[in-house]
Amino acid sequence: MRIPRPPDAPRPDTIVPLIDVVFFLLVFFMLVGRMDATAPFEVSPPEAGTGADLPAGGATLSVAADGALALDGAPIPSGALEGQMAERLAGQPDLFVRVNAHRSAELRHVLPLVARLEAMGAREVALVVTPRSGQP
Description:
Blueprint lengths: L15 H17 L26 E5 L5 E3 L2 E3 L4 H11 L4 E6 L5 H14 L3 E4 L9
Parallel strand pairs: 1-4, 4-5
Antiparallel strand pairs: 1-2, 2-3
């Protein structure tokens, strides 16, 4: 007597080859595509002038890590900046202003300050930086 064998169950389709294809496509597009937003026009970033001496004279505005201000070494309240700088700019319209910010000062303290200086009429504002050790 022959016992009939049960029919073989169909093997389920594996998706491993599909996962491999998707992975390779992902890697391909990550290598080929640009991940940053591009501007609709040409942008040339400014060049840093580290190592170059700053011009003598002018005013130095210091920014502490907590956002406190000092003008030429004398602490001033933030609201008094406009008055003191307006006096200086009236006497010297081409006044060179250095902004010397503490390395821990947040940009929310420094960038609006530069905008305020430009709105007051300062024509040349320079951010003082320290080169990394080992750089000329």
